[in-house]
Specification:
With 270 residues, the protein is mostly beta strands. It is built from four helices and 24 strands. The strands form seven sheets. Strands 16, 17, 18, 19, 20, 21 and 22 form a seven-stranded antiparallel β-sheet that branches. Strands 6-5-4-1-7 form a five-stranded antiparallel β-sheet. Helix 2 (134-144) crosses helix 3 (162-171).
Length: 270
């Protein structure tokens, strides 16, 4: 029986629009994230569906550990997430750098016993099944990405786009969001006034055609974290995002959505 699933076994793997190394990169897999195998094209390409967001794209199967359905639960239910920007997982013969937001399958707090090796991880991580202040963690992790360069399709601190940024940051608190802003905007409940915004709310912006094309994470005092050129912190009001460097508004506000309820030590996310 051919394997039906795969787990990313490299630091970060590109997902492409077509089965070609020159094709547009539409997203990325981080270490430990799993996919369903849908179609093969020769030995070099495989069409996959990402399990945490149902995103479909082409990738190189050599960057996956392939496994059968009976192993799916133990890999997909990775309850530990790496919180260091970059930290190596180490085996007896290699050190593999992994990035913030990576999944740590079968992690016991010290090591992972994976089919392709036993790896130790000594960096900061979060156990999603233990209680923690989700809003505080969310905002602290979001700020770690400040000045990360913008990269279309990126999901890492070395290159990230606006919706990839939001998706990975929310992953670190155990909330799975769709990959693209036009899908993320369907989540949560509307916030009617900018003055009612709470830290952790998501603000969505539209282009001249009225299409959602940008998203960011709200902070206190009318500020927003978002990826535009780089991950940056800008002021925002009822009109949109104002760039102090350019002395103009750069993004027009469409709607603010709340995934978080409460503020402070009792804050929880839904």
């Amino acid at each position: 029986m051919s394997p039906r699933y795969g787990m990313c076994k490299v630091s970060v793997s590109p997902l492409r629009k077509t089965a070609n190394d020159r094709s547009e990169m539409v997203s990325q897999l981080l270490f430990g994230e799993c996919v369903e195998l849908l179609e093969k094209k020769g030995r070099s390409w495989i069409f996959v569906r990402v399990l945490h967001d149902a995103y479909e794209a082409w990738m190189d199967p050599k960057q996956l550990h392939l496994f059968e359905e009976k192993e799916l639960m133990q890999f997909q239910s990775a309850n530990h997430i790496a919180l260091e920007l970059v930290e190596s997982v180490k085996s007896t013969d290699q050190a593999l750098p992994i990035l913030i937001g990576s999944s740590l399958p079968k992690f016991d707090g010290l090591s992972m016993k994976l089919p392709f090796g036993k790896y130790q991880y000594s960096g900061l991580s979060i156990h999603l099944l233990e209680p923690f202040n989700k809003v505080d963690i969310l905002l602290n992790i979001a700020k770690k990405y400040l000045h990360a360069p913008y990269l279309w399709g990126g999901r890492s601190p070395f290159g990230i786009d606006c919706s990839g940024y939001v998706q990975v940051v929310f992953k670190t608190i155990g909330l799975a969001l769709p990959r693209d802003a036009k899908e993320q905007v369907k989540e949560g409940i509307p916030v009617n006034f900018v003055t009612e915004v709470l830290p952790g709310d998501l603000a969505f912006f539209h282009n001249q055609d009225g299409r959602i094309h940008h998203v960011g994470i709200m902070l206190e005092q009318g500020r927003i974290l978002h990826a535009s050129g780089k991950v940056r912190l800008d002021p925002m009001d009822h009109y949109g995002i104002y760039n102090n460097e350019l002395k103009k508004y750069t993004h027009r506000l469409r709607i603010i959505k709340r995934l978080a309820i409460g503020l402070g030590s009792e804050a929880e996310l839904v």
